[in-house]
Amino acid sequence: MPMGREDIVETEIPVSQLAIGMHVVRLDRPWEDTDFLLQGFILQTEEDVLAVQQQCETVIVEGRVQVAPTTERQQLPVSKRKTSVKAGPSDISQSSSSIPKRKVTYVNKVDARREMATARMNYADAKATAKNIMSSLRLGRTLEMNQIHQVVDDCVDSVLRNDNALLLLTKIKNKDEYTAEHCINVSILSAAFAKHLGLLEGEIRTVALGGLLHDVGKMRIDDEILNKPGALTPEEFAVMKNHTTFGRDVLAALPRLAHSAVDVAYSHHERMDGKGYPRGLAGHQIPLFAKIVGLVDTYDAITSSRVYDKGRASMEALQIIHRNKGAQFDAELAVEFIRMVGVYPPGSIVEMTNGEVGIVVATHPTSKLKPRVLLVRDANKQPLGTFREANLLKETPDEAGQPYKIAREVPDESYGIVMKDFIEQGILNRKAPEVSAPVDDSHSES
To answer: Does any domain span residue 87?
Structure first.
């Protein structure tokens, strides 16, 4: 007797019928008019369901149905075929949660601009420390652990006060200083992510330390391979993979270092599908902090320019992470990381729908698609005589009377906008007049 087959169907339902586990594939309005970061998602919590119900009236969900065997003569055209959909938890992985239950709810204690001056000093100290770590390991010297712990604590303190400031600084990318910048960026991003996950303060400091030290093993890799301006051969890649074991050996010999930091260096390239290295661990065997740092490591690497690759926009990196969740990355952590970063994180250079160009200076925790943007170029991509700030959450109108909206993110240095220059000149520290307010001449061109 012929077996039935399983078809994937789409059904429009009112949002009152939504339930955890359903796969939402389309909305009753444009995605850009909502706060959702990605087009298509699975409802994983009651908060997800509530968010959709607050912004839509109907949605299209995807599910699987059993279609009974039938002859070709009996089949109806797809447009007239009636099917019922059951899009429930069976559509998603039933593996237990890898994210600890939320322990702490953090709120930013100070304004991002107020934190920026301190964050800049902490970032500079951390970068200098990262360089010192690399040179010490190259020369066989002992690491200054007191100094390392101090810079990590200073950065975590800044993240706890307001993570927007240091997250903005991670957007500074110098190709010639990639290794040091990458280590401190991974440390900061890991701390911000741990804060987002609600980990305890001590755990945030530990994961930040692991992020700073995750690549120390690379200092035992020959420069010809480490800085090769092109793809590695299979033989060279096999050598490069040894950096995880080298990192474990270096850190395991240090006194007063949390064992979890050693785990991070050893296991941050393991994958959920067991195809990672060096041990090919299964997903449940990978330590949580190694999963966190491994995900952040990938994000910062994709968005950074290196000797062999040009950095890509944040949104492209998030799409890569989304595509590889469950295989390379822990699915729950990937979704939470995308939520934390948002489509337009601080420091993103964005082109508005009216052609003007600006820099994202801060995001709203509950409205990631509507950040605060410092406008620095006009519609003709010429420098503005006076920089102005548009708070997209307020839907302030432009000169044509249309609310400011972001059209797309563009890479650093687009239209002559170099993030490093804006930060070093302190422009992002100062309060600019809002679009709706009278302009003045207190801000200069960069």
So the answer is: no
Domain holding 263: CATH number? 1.10.3210.10
Q: Has residue 441 been placed in a domain?
A: no
Look at residue 299 and tell me if it is in a domain: yes
Q: Which two tokens stand for residue 317?
A: 């990196």
Backbone angles phi, psi at 270, to 5 degrees: -75, 155
Q: What is the mean pLDDT of residues 152-174?
A: 91
- How many Å separate Cα 292 from the centre of its chain? 11
Residue 265 and residue 204 in one domain: yes
Are 323 and 362 found together in one domain? no
Q: Output the CA angle 258-263-267, nearest 5 degrees.
A: 160
Q: What is residue 38's predicted lDDT score, i.e. its pLDDT?
A: 65
Tens digit of each residue's pLDDT (9 = 90 or more) over 344-374: 888 889 999 999 999 998 887 767 778 899 9
Asked if residue 196 and residue 122 are part of one domain, the reply reads yes
CA distances from 328 to 178, 192, 199, 223, 320 (A): 23, 21, 23, 27, 10
Q: What is the mean pLDDT of residues 167-190?
A: 87
For tokens 């949390």, name the residue. 258
HSE-CB at 353 with a 13 A cutoff on CA atoms is 13
- Whether the pLDDT of residue 249 is over 80: the answer is yes
Instruction: Please report whether residue 83 resides in a domain.
Output: no
User: What is the C-alpha to C-alpha distance for residues 311 and 243, in angstroms, rounded to an integer?
Assistant: 23
Q: In what order do the strands lie in the sheet with 383-391?
A: 383-391, 367-377, 357-364, 349-352, 406-410
pTM over 0.70: yes
Q: Verify cis geometry, omega within 30 degrees of 0, for the bond prior to 403.
A: no
State the distance between the two ends of the chain, measured CA to CA, in whole angstroms: 75
Owning domain of residue 165? 112-341
Radius of gyration (Cα) for the chain, nearest Å?
Answer: 24
